[in-house]
Each structure stands twice: as C-alpha cells, then as structure tokens.
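Incident log, entry 3
Record: Aspartate aminotransferase family protein (452 residues)
Problem: checksum mismatch between cached and fresh output.
Input:
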Amino acid sequence: QPHTSGWQSQDSAHHLHPFTDYKALNAKGSRIITHAEGCYIWDSEGNKILDGMAGLWCVNIGYGRKELADAAYAQMQELPYYNNFFQCSTPPAVELSALLAELTPPQFKHVFFTGSGSESNDTVLRMVRYYWKLKGKPYKKIIIARDNAYHGSTVAGASLSGMKAMHAQGDLPIPGIAHIEQPYHFGVAPEMDVNEFGLRAARALERKIDELGECNVAAFIAEPIQGAGGVIVPPDSYWPEIKRICAERDILLVADEVITGFGRLGTWFGSQHYGIEPDLMAIAKGLSSGYQPIGGVLVGDKVADVLIGEGGEFFHGFTYSGHPVAAAVAATNLRILRDERIIERAAEDVSPYLQRRWRELADHPLVGEARGVGMVAALELVKSKSPREDFAPAGKVGTLCRDICVENGLVMRAVRDTMIISPPLVLSREQVDELIEKATRSLDQAATRLGE
Ligand code: PLP
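Fresh output:
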C-alpha cells in the first residue's frame, strides 16, 4: 500500500481540478487513484474498481502494458526531447506518421501532431481557414458545429463545443463559429420516426449554410457519435445526409475522432463505421491509449495537396508536436492494437455481448433508454417511462447513481441523468457480466434511495 496520509487534504489545499465542483470536492475529498491493471483501478483506500470509462474514454488497450512503459524508458534514454520545427524530425515521429498512414483510410497520408484533443481541434480551425485562404476564398471562415458537442477546453475547442455552461463562463464562442442541433432522438422527439428525425437533424446543416451563405462557410465539424454530450447515437439516416450536404455545398467535413478513433465503435475510426469519408480527422486519447499525452490532425489528400503544394510556411505548431517519447509510446500502442487484433476481436466478440446485455438494463424502472455502439453505451435515467417524465433538477439522480456505482466498485460517468460507459477494448465477457451486475445493483439502490 502506498503512503496516503494527508494526500486528500493536500489535494484540496493546492490542486484546482479540471471539470470539478470545488464545493463538492472540498466537502468529500478526492478519490486518489494509485495504480491500475487490465480493466481495474485501485484507490488509496485499497478499493478495486472496474473502470467502465477507460479513464476518460482513452485507455483502449487496458492498463499495465509493460511494452508501452519500456518504449517510453528506451526513448527517454536515447532522445528524451527534440522538436519537429524548422525541418527537423525524430525517428518516433517519422515511424508514427507512417503507421498512421498505414492504419487510416486511404485519403489520409499526412498527420499534424499535437499534444491533446483540444489542440487538435484548434489546429483544425487554423488549418481549414488557411486552406480556404490558399484556395483564394478567404471569406470562407465559419465553422459549423453542433449543440452539446465537446471539442475541447482551449478557447477554440470550447468555442466549437456546444456546451452552454462553458460558453457562459468564458464569453464564448469566438466569432466565426455557429451551432446546429444534435441528432438526439430520445431527448428531442422520441415519438417521431427515428430516420425521419435523423434527416431533419441533418438538414439543419443545410438550413444553417443557407442562412450564413455558402460562400462564408469553411467546414462542418462533428463527432461520429457525440461522447461527452451524452453518447448521442445518430439515426442511420443522419450521416449519409450530412455527407451529401457537405459534398454538394463547397465545405470541408471534419470528424472529431478523439473518442471514436482507435476502435471505440468496432472499426479503427468511427468514420468507417458510418461511411463518413471526412477531409480531416482530429485524434488523441486512444492514439496512445492515454499512456502519454499526444494528439493529431489526420489530413486528407484534398487539404494536404493544397497545404504542401501551395502553402509555404504554416505558422502553427506546439513545442510538444510529435514529442519523441509520446510518439514512441503511441507507435507501440498502435502496433499492439494491430498485431493482437484488439479492435477486431472486441468487435467480433465482446462488444456484441456487451451491447446485448446492456440493453437488458432498459427493463429497469429507472431506465428510459439503453443505447450504444461497439464499446460505448449510455442509459437515460427517467422518473417515469410512460408517460415520460425526466428528473428535475436534471443531473441530481445521475450524480447519485454515479456515486453509488463507485461504492459498488464500478466507474460510470454521469452526463446530467445519462449514465455512460466506455471501457477498455480488452474487457472480457466475465467483466461484462460483472459490469452489468454492478450497474443493476447500483440502479436498484438508487431507486431505493429515491423512494426514501
Ligand atoms: N474532442 C472530443 C470528442 C473529446 O471527447 C475530447 C475530450 O474528451 C476532446 C476533443 C478534447 O481532448 P483533450 O481533453 O485531450 O484536450
């Protein structure tokens, strides 16, 4: 057991946590996670917890892969840092770029490295505007995103995000960003035919382009499945219609694959699951399975040809773009995902089992909808199923349920009253059973506490 006395008080005294209610943290103290193995994490009080969220949707390969630690150690001894600016490169950055070209859809032969998903989306914004300037259309600047999207916490990332609370705190979005509705069938129009609803939600993009003027719109950005917005699975009709609109209107299509990249939906990229064929893809998280902070923008030929052919210098980059240690770890992670067929094996076996068992939870009195794709899923908690009544105020029951889950040894995330899982791709069938058993017990206990 590590020495833990005083950690919680020091944490409250000195550490300003991201996305944390400070009053609640100070009242309860933080949970200090000390180590992890496979799909489990341990806290400083010795509790073993099944990590249903793979950290923050990122530890796709599972915890404790020694090969990744060895890659970091070896690279730190060889060359702990050098930059990729000014015509320099390093072997890990070269190797990772080539691996990404091998593992991504054929239009992606180039990658621009960043340190995180937020930086990737900042890079997207800079890159699409620069692209249109190079094409002689400098007025094409506006990027259309979606309500409730999450694209990061930097100023551009938070502006592209569609979260009203983030906008309100930071006086965002910055100019040149517009939002349209999300394809949230259960939340918006559950009585409507699902594919009709999907078409209606997609055509909001067309209406917005008309409103803003096609000549002013640079790009549309979206997550294949909205993650932090509540695992919003789009109707089947949604993405083909978006694809049609982007192709007919002269705008770039950007997929934010920060969550859906590297196997989450059962294909290497979420775009492949939905047949999206984007011009750019933002990546991070699963690129290194979270073992090192690294992200990137995968640049399709349409944009790369212009940047390389006509661009000159792109005045953009980060000290840690293509960091050699992070790149070495990411390359090792990708080789393991590829050679052990982790994504394909999860898609063939454990994810159909997980999705089938997950949908059994829809019978629980607290659950209005159970949905998911591949290795991501959500439960919508409701006060009453029929007639449908949501909990008020929104979020209280989700938080209660999340806390009970942790008491029962399971991490689930609460987005308002939606309970989410996004476990490591190496979850076993036995661990699916454990997850469902703990989730069911937690829902039962939440229902009892609500009735008291
Ligand atoms: N894009 C999506 C879809 C995300 O889910 C996230 C983080 O959760 C980000 C971007 C931001 O990534 P980061 O936290 O690495 O900056």
